[in-house]
Design a protein that fits this description.
Layout lengths: L4 E3 L6 H10 L12 E10 L4 E9 L19 E9 L4 E4 L3 E3 L14
Antiparallel strand pairs: 1-3, 2-3, 2-4, 4-5, 4-6
Length: 114
C-alpha cells in the first residue's frame, strides 16, 4: 500500500509519518486488490489556534498511520471522511464525515449500494 500524507501550508513531521504507518497496519486486510482509498482527517482546537487537515492515500497492503500531539487539556475529537475510488474508472464515492475521539480507525471495505 502506498502512503501519501498531505499537509496544507506545512510539512509533515517524521513522527507523524511513522505513526501513520503503524496505525494503518490492519487496513490491508480490508482492501480489495487495486482499491484506492483516501482518508481525510481534520482536527480543530480554536482555543489553542490548532487547525490540522491531513489526507492519507491508501492503495495496497503497506501499514499506515497518522497522529498528532495535543495538549492534555485539548479536545480529543477529530473528524474523518473516507473517499473510495471504485470501478475501472476510479469513480470517487464519499462516505459521510464522521466525528470521533477513537485512537484507532479501521477503514471498512467499500460496499456498493443495493
Amino acid at each position: 500500500m502506498q502512503l501519501q500524507v498531505k499537509a496544507q501550508h506545512e510539512t509533515v513531521p517524521e513522527a507523524v509519518q511513522a505513526y501513520t504507518e503503524k496505525r494503518f497496519a490492519k487496513l490491508s486486510r480490508r482492501l480489495y486488490e487495486g482499491t484506492m482509498v483516501e482518508v481525510t482527517f481534520s482536527y480543530d482546537d480554536p482555543q489553542r489556534g490548532v487547525h490540522e487537515r491531513k489526507t492519507l492515500s491508501l492503495s495496497d497492503s503497506t501499514a499506515q498511520s497518522w497522529f498528532m500531539l495535543v495538549d492534555a487539556a485539548a479536545p480529543r475529537q477529530y473528524q474523518y471522511q473516507i473517499t473510495y475510488y471504485v470501478g475501472a474508472d476510479g469513480t470517487p464515492v464519499e462516505a459521510p464525515p464522521v466525528t470521533t475521539d477513537r485512537s484507532k480507525l479501521v477503514v471498512p471495505r467499500y460496499k456498493a449500494p443495493t
